[in-house]
Amino acid sequence: MIGSLKGTFAARPADSEVIVEVGGVGYRLTVSTPTAASLGAVGSEVCLHVHTHVREDAIVLYGFLHD
User: Fold this and answer.
1) What's the pLDDT at 38?
2) DSSP bridge partners of 28
3) Of 38, 53, 54, 57, which one is least surrounded by beta carbons within 10 A?
């Protein structure tokens, strides 16, 4: 299970999604609009707490600035 990610803010493919690159792997996280706005510019260092939600048809990572 992924508890947190610290890496480079690589992209924002949608308003509610960001990609954080850690060790050459890009993790797509669903985030709130305020969280996305607080991350700064693409290329900056970020740290997000992560909730992993497993469903029958998908695994979704939700990112939060605080626990």
Assistant:
1) 93
2) 19
3) 57
User: In the block, which residue shows the tokens 């290329």?
Assistant: 43
Contacts of 31 (CB under 8 A, 6+ apart): 16, 17, 18, 39, 48, 62, 63, 64
Residue type, 52: T
CA 54/CA 24 separation, integer angstroms? 23
Distance (Å, whole) CA 57 – CA 41: 32
Please tell me whether the overall predicted TM-score, pTM, comes out greater than 0.85 for this model.
yes
pLDDT digits (tens, 9 = 90+) for 32-48: 999 999 999 999 999 99
At position 66, the amino acid (one-letter code) is: H
Say if strands 17-22 and 59-64 run parallel, antiparallel, or are unpaired.
Answer: unpaired
* CA–CA gap between residue 42 and residue 46 (Å, rounded): 10
